[in-house]
Amino acid sequence: MYRLTGSVGQGGRNAHDDVLLVQKQLNKNAHITSAIGTLPETGIMDEATLRAILSFQRAVVRLGSPDGRVDPHGRTWRMLLGDQPQATNVAFVQLSGENGNFYLYESQDRVWGTASTIQSIRNVAAVLKPHGFEIAIGDISFQQGGRMAPHGSHRRGTDVDIRPVRADGRRAPVTISDPNYSHARTKLLVEALHAEPNLKLILFNDSKMAGVRFWEGHHNHLHVRFEE
Ligand SMILES: [Zn+2]
């Protein structure tokens, strides 16, 4: 199913099913780079699809001069399927330690990030302490980065999942439609995140919240992206 019969994109063969497959994978990876947006899955090679391929090559494959083309055995296609990007040579730092005014809701091996990302999380947690609540940190990245299922992103130590804040202070999941969800506390969290100079974006689906972008599936966590 995930095999291309021919190339897709600029100068490609652009067979319908191949184009469709590339569009679907681009959409699965849209989470990684805001430049892609959501593509209509038509199987027809068009301007929007070409732009998305170029954005993906620039932002994720890190091609100096993207060619806008996905070849069946090429690097762009492998990475669209979720292969690891080039090993990063930046050492990641693990988020750990008690009394940080946060708790982890995934395992310890999944909370490695760049030094600035980890520092920002600590800053935000500290800023919120006087307000009387802690924050819940989920997946960041593995120690060596790379693919972290089920996410498309979380490869570079700059993505952090955070639970919306509960009104009752329990260490438990919560969604925006749950009576225990605190919009007011989560708003303080969002504001504290925006005070970090390296914040890039927040994906979260509380439509009454300023400073966040809607993204499917983000009703039970904030996906926070920091600069590299
Ligand atoms: Zn996430």
Automatic annotation (TrEMBL):
GO terms for biological process: proteolysis. GO terms for molecular function: metal ion binding; metallopeptidase activity; serine-type endopeptidase activity. This is Peptidoglycan-binding protein. Pfam families: Peptidase_M74 (PF03411). Keywords: Hydrolase, Metal-binding, Metalloprotease, Periplasm, Protease, Signal, Zinc. One of its GO terms (cellular component) is outer membrane-bounded periplasmic space. It comes from Polyangium fumosum. InterPro entries: Peptidase_M74, PGBDSf, Zn_M74/Hedgehog-like. It comes from the Bacteria.
